[in-house]
Fold each of these.
Amino acid sequence: MTGLVRAAATCMLLLATPLFIRAQSTDSLFIRFQLDSTDVNLSYGGNAARLQQFEENFLRQYGDRNPIGIQMDIYAGASPEGSRNRNMALGQARAESIAALLRERLGEKAGTIELHNLGPRWDDLYDMIAASNEPWRDEALNIIKSDVAADPRYLDPREMRLRNLRGGEVWSVLLKKYLAPLRSGGSGAGLASDKPLGAAGSVVVSWHPERDTIVIRDTVVVEKTVVMTPVPVRDTVVIIHENYYPAVAVAPVPHIREKADQTKAWAIKTNLLLWGVVAPNLEVEIPLGNKNRWSLEFETFASWFVWNKNAQASQAINLGVEARLWLGKREYHPWLDGWHLGLALAGGYYDWEWFPSDGYQGEYANIYFNIGWQHRFGKKKNWAIDLGLGVGAMGTQYRHYYGGSVYPEGREEEWDQHLIWHDTGYFLWPGPCHANISIVYVINYKDKNHRRK
């Protein structure tokens, strides 16, 4: 009888045991990224301390578990500023950087790694503003939730509308209070609590015991005077293969081109080539519009020298203006930087007498198409070099004369005030008629639509 009771108790215990021992536990890691960066910088934003704590918790909870039951979901995104393509590239690269770091630190213990690219985080910005009491809250929310068919290669129209909202006042607050946390990976106030992304990069670890639990079939025999037919407890058998988890190849992080500072600027210049012929000169360039696409340049030079008892002269005055079109994707160039095309018009007066007894006076006009390249450099991008070559036509109506050296020796200076006219003519030069190698100093000024850095 005792044996029968023991067998019955054993059978009841087995029947009461769940077919799977189900449990679920999670842990998480948040990684902050610097502006436009895709590399995990452990010295930035407390990343090193959070990673160390995450590793300790992970090894304590999952270090002795089979990696087949462990899954890491990595969520990454970027601030909604800029084009969608660029923000998608940022999100993907950040997720891949975190995956590479975890695989390096934990090896196969990390289990299955899945990447989730959230791209531009418009929803997070919406939640942050919705939780605020800003006076323009409803206006901004209506813009963000507006249905737009944005070209993924360019700025989202919603960003442009936010930049112009209330004359740029709202954009200044958004940059400082809301977009800055999203840029660097901070969660900011008001992020929805049900979202897995609390920073620019977020790792959520979960254990799925059904993947690594093996339940072995067993047979229970109830002892009786008569031997009963064995009653099997049926269950699914999960077979674990060796080297179950394949190595995950993490693609190299792509280069992300950074947007340039879009603060307006104007410049003062001097052409070194004119200094080579002793012609002091000054150029001023000013921006036109708000799209970093057009500018206007004014130039002047004056050379007013006489020598050898007034028998020789190099005198010229020039005034010119050039309208420039700046090429390329201007969001990646600061103002007054890059390749440019121009249409210029110039004119002036000259009086040249290089050799005794022979000189020319006249007025001239110069029109030309200019192609050039200007590059800003220095810590604050306040210096630049401007190279240009112009092709067009220059025409002049000249007066040819003889100077004072034809007069009696010793009386040249007395008579040089009276030039002897020889002939009058017209000269037209088609071809290269402008060149410059200019040193530039750039002066920035604050524009209402952009924050000066």
Amino acid sequence: MSKTETSSDVVKSSVPGLRRNSVGLGGTVIMSAAIMGPAVSTFFNPQFSTPFSGYATPFVYLATLVVTLIVANGVMEMARVAPSSGSFYTYITRALGPRAGFTTGGLMFVAYALLGPAEVGLIGSYLQVTFQQEFGIDIPWIWIGLVPWVFMTILAFEGIRSSLKAATALFFAEIVVVIILSVIIVSHGGAHGLSAEPFSPTASPQGMGGLVTGFVFAALSFVGFEGATALGDEAKSPHRTIPRGILLSTLLVGAIYLFGTWALAVGLGRDGMNNLVGTDTPWNDLAATYAPWMKWLLILAAVSSMFAVMINSNNGIVRIVHTMGREELLPRALGKINAKRQTPGVAVIWQALFVLVAALIIGTLSGGLADPLGGSNLYGYLGFALTCAILPIYALANWATIVYFRKRPDFNWFRHMVLPMCGGLLMIALLVGQIIVNQSPPFNWMPWVILAWLTIVILGAVWLRHNRPEALTRAGSIMATGEVEE
């Protein structure tokens, strides 16, 4: 080995890699935007905030967008200097050490891997109820959910470009429906005329407390903004493309949320908005009132949004598991590449089996595989669990930004200290709020399950340190293109 050759170079040369330079800026935008799921988040998430923030829910989404941009700053800064398919795992390893990185990988597994079975449950239960109402037939949700599961796996095998092409088509289809219906509602003047009051905090029926609680639920709509980071090995000029993709997708989807929630508020009116609860389907009612011809377009947009979330989150976790396999922190087989398609075939199979087994087991325990309640509970329970796992990762990523940049010549007090500190504290506050708000079973014991899993992962890192220190030392060594491009 020459003196100029690094361990990273050795890993790269000896292990087949993912297909380089296969994703442009548009692909990175779609990767993050589709995971956030504009249609599914607009159609199903605001009514979880409205029991608390009511008519002021659009203001809550505006505040959440600002907070997300603050948190995204740290993620974008780390993506600029350390792009990798390992995403947060690599960022935190580079800044805080291999044990912190390994622990992050464990949390990321929960945060990303659970999105697959959650979407199987949501698609299945939503279509089961729809088929019952529209055609009088009853197909168990698990059989419906297996259809997108099969297509998710096939697309993952075919490669990131096939997945992103599908996600792009689904994404544009869903946002067109959201925007058109919102425009129709606004053009009709809503229920009682147009008003900017929903963007005022004073519109909250429960005051500041309602705004804070509503914010906790609104934050779920922005989870996944960082999805583009998993394309660090496959994006063109990743040092520039990944940060820009994160920023543009967050602004784009955030704007859709703001317009959509405002249209929802003016379409239902103050009383209608304040009376919404999580089990309601207000957009179905709005379509029936303002544009009956859009009923099936609305249903198709919702399903396409769920599927786009499913395939993009699956691509993210597959690449993280693949990276940890290449660095031998997970079984080496997970780091293997399919030579023909240049895709992480073993990791794809492993994740597909995990999604199927998790959906079957948790769906059975949540209400059964035939009752739509089992599918909807599967989505709700796993959604809460993965949120409890990903919020600490966001906080760690912002802390990593401070540590990583403080000794660099390009250190900037605002971008590398003030914003990351604020972002980390906001994520911890949001996590605490999420736990406080959800006090009914099984939500009240889910944080303890995440804590137990975290303990197991930490013990695994300790075991690696004592038994396979060379593997732990390699953590985070696989980078996308080497040093930062100035």
Amino acid sequence: MPEIPAAAVELMKFLAESATSAHAVEAAAGMLDRLGFDRRSERERWDGAPSKPFYVTRGLGSLVAVVPGASPPWESGFRIVGAHTDYPGFRLKPSPVRMKGSSAMLGVEVYGSPIIATWFDRDLTLAGTAWFGKPGEAPEPRLWRLEGPVCRISMPAMHLNRGVNDEGFTFNKEENLCPMLVLSGVTADSLARAIADACSERPDRLAGFAGHVVDCQPAAVGGLAGEMIFSGRIDNLAMTHAAVRSLAGLRNPATTAVACVFDNEEVGSSTFSGAASNFLDAVLERICSPAGREGLFRAIPRSVMVSADAAHAFNPCYEGRFDRENRPLLNGGPVIKVNSMQRYSTSAPTSAYFAECARAAGVQVQSYVSRNDMPCGSTIGPIISSRLGIAAVDAGNPTLSMHSVREAAGVEDHGMMISVLMKHMEGCIPV
């Protein structure tokens, strides 16, 4: 196999670290910490325009990072890249351990719109956030992940479901999606003890926890010629990594560069830290505080955002599902996503802008548009663009098996996207 591009190696490491949106933000913050970014708090006073790179988090799964430009944003605007940190799958219900016969099962809720059948017969584990503290004190969050495969959602044998190959696999979301945790001898406290142990804490200090079901299999390079990456969570942790990595690689941008990654896109973004919240708005306004709100109002029309989310790659086995002329290929470069019903934020000017950034980076671009007889998905682009009044383009890398437990991407595409986003964030391409 050929040598794996460095950007693909970085991505695979990031995917391994990012079991949940909170883990992804911790990994992104660690990347920025190592580069000397300041960590700010929304609770603190921010005096004046920032003079050095910084980042701020809200909740556990959202982060905004900023590199100040050579001129203030009210004179040159912002160059923003937005992405999301969550992915479709399953979340643990409160008091999740339940007995069925002698086996301990887990009660889960469906989160977003996963291809549920792909989660059956997989090696699965659990990860999430736990809170520890004493009564009367504010508990502190700790990230946790159980090592190795600890649970499994099993399909019925062929002999018990003989029509599965001709009629399709069907299941009840409440009764049949319970991962098997232990065959016998478990109590309701067993999971809590395992979580406390994973955090090196005492179980009596555990105030509560939230958990995700996570695929155990690590990211891998695949294909006979090593052209693809196979992994879970490519949508949209690949673009989360690209956003933060492109910002981290900047040196003296002309305009103020911003990378923002949000939780809860897969369920609509309407949370206190999602893309529909005021998180990004508040950060941008505080950056412009020396010029007051008027400074923000002057900055917005000078600004442009790239909403970076995975794009559909052409699947030769289902070519009838794709527009005839717009069929993005793996390793063919970033994809500009267009929808006349405005499910994507792309316009003709912003599409041309992104293509010019790609040309400056020496990268080709592709395009995607849905067939007229198939509905189009959406992402954070229209949400932020319409609320802030900022011009935006929706783009992403081509991805196969989107929303499956295992997705596929091209090994070359990640580096190309980072190069384009860096050209965008440098602020040298006119708006």
